[in-house]
Amino acid sequence: MNKNIKKIISLALILGILNVLSPAINLNFMDTKAYANTTDGVTNIRLKASGGNSLSLYSDNDYDDTVSEVKEPGTYYAKTSLSKVQVDVSGVDSDNVRIFDGTSSSTRGTREGGGISLSDTTTIVVRIYSQNPGAVKYSDKDNIASEYRIKVKYLGSSDSENDNVYLKDITVSYGDVNFSKTTYNYNVNVPDDINEITIGARPDSDSNEYDNYKVKIDGTKVDEDDKYKEKVSLNKGNNKIEIYVEDDSDNSRTYTLNVFRGTNTGIAISNNNQADNNIKGSWVQTNGKWQYNDESGNIVKNKWVQNYYVDAEGNRATDLLNVDGLWYYFGQDGIKKIGWQKINGIWHHFDEQGIMQIGWMKDIDGKYYYLNSNGAMASNTTIGGYKLGADGAWTE
């Protein structure tokens, strides 16, 4: 009998015996598919504010296409003015999840629910493990089932005022813009019969090479092929048009045009040296200073206006300021800051209400720091028998 025929008969007999003994065994040798669930079980990953609201996640750093559900390992993007966020993972045992605030080999994984402080662009790594990893560092690679990355661009105290990226010019088809690259708000008046305006905005590049820049005019991306121009439709009255420029280092800046079609009756931003006291319930700029007019048209003084504070002269505060015996820090944008802030080269910390902290404090990373009576972080010293390292953290 042919040897191949003998082998086929023998294999058939073996398969028949196995099917009798164990009918539940799947012996489909032609199908290499694994029947066990190969997914990590994640049904969604959300980036949340401390109040519980979810932030939008995007598929790339153009921030155009939102991702409704994050359940495939990969890299995602977000941007926020919040200084602290949380990560929420659905569908898996929370004991098997660790969150890493950065990709340094010594970064320790934390459990869900802890706050993550943001500065510049922060890479948050979410790892799903096949079992509870216990205490783990980023450099530990055992039992990782999957990994997700969220690159969060912080729009807060990393003030775009300090980013080294500008526009070279702004042009309009109607009206006039007296452009300066360090002036970020402009008013343009056009006749009532003008229903659209062409805006040009070219990046400021020393080499005249623009491949590394991204420009958006009223939300639409423009490039050299468009001559960095875009037509924008105008409604009657005020039309607020933002021009966004970003380089390949994630430095960014936003310029704003207030285009008034017809009679200008409600301007909230002024380029003039004198405030218009008829502007009620809005910010105005006078002699380079921002002031707030209340509903009666009076300049507000010595008072909070949302997250801003106006001083005794009615000017919006910037820098450190003592308000009712408590110290606050306001950035160049005037917004009250929280968390770690570097002021004149020295680190200070401000709590959730923006109040400068002094004495011992425990940060969200679990480390202890000491803030002197002037709020300055102590480092390379010993306080009360506790040694503080160069980064200010207590070292055992």
Task: Spell out the key features of this protein.
disordered N terminus; 5-stranded mixed β-sheet; 396 residues; mainly beta; 4-stranded mixed β-sheet; 5% helix; globular; 38% strand; Immunoglobulin-like; left handed beta-beta-3-solenoid
Write the layout of secondary structure elements.
Elements: H1 3-21, E1 44-48, E2 74-80, E3 84-90, E4 97-101, E5 116-117, E6 121-129, E7 144-154, E8 167-172, E9 185-190, E10 196-203, E11 213-217, E12 220-222, E13 229-233, E14 237-247, E15 252-261, E16 282-286, E17 289-293, E18 303-305, E19 308-310, E20 319-323, E21 326-330, E22 339-343, E23 346-350, E24 359-362, E25 368-371, E26 381-383, E27 386-388
Parallel strand pairs: 2-7, 9-15
Antiparallel strand pairs: 1-3, 3-5, 4-6, 6-7, 8-10, 10-13, 11-12, 11-14, 14-15, 16-17, 18-19, 20-21, 22-23, 24-25, 26-27
Protein name: Cadherin-like beta-sandwich-like domain-containing protein
Domain Cadherin-like beta-sandwich-like: 167-261
Cell wall-binding repeats: 337-356, 357-377
Describe the structure.
- This protein has 396 residues and is mainly beta.
- It has one helix at 3-21, and strands at 44-48, 74-80, 84-90, 97-101, 116-117, 121-129, 144-154, 167-172, 185-190, 196-203, 213-217, 220-222, 229-233, 237-247, 252-261, 282-286, 289-293, 303-305, 308-310, 319-323, 326-330, 339-343, 346-350, 359-362, 368-371, 381-383, 386-388.
- The protein folds into 3 domains: 44-154, Immunoglobulin-like (Sandwich); 163-310, Sandwich (Immunoglobulin-like), CATH 2.60.40; 335-388, left handed beta-beta-3-solenoid (Ribbon).
- The strands form 10 sheets. A 5-stranded mixed beta sheet has the order 9-15-14-11-12, with no helix packed on it. Strands 2-7-6-4 form a 4-stranded mixed beta sheet, with no helix packed on it. It has a 3-stranded antiparallel beta sheet with strand order 1-3-5, with no helix packed on it.
- A hairpin with a 2-residue loop joins strand 16 and strand 17.
- Keywords: Repeat.
- InterPro entries: Cadherin-like_domain, Cell_wall/Cho-bd_repeat.
- Residues 167-261 form the Cadherin-like beta-sandwich-like domain.
- Cell wall-binding repeats lie at residues 337-356, 357-377.
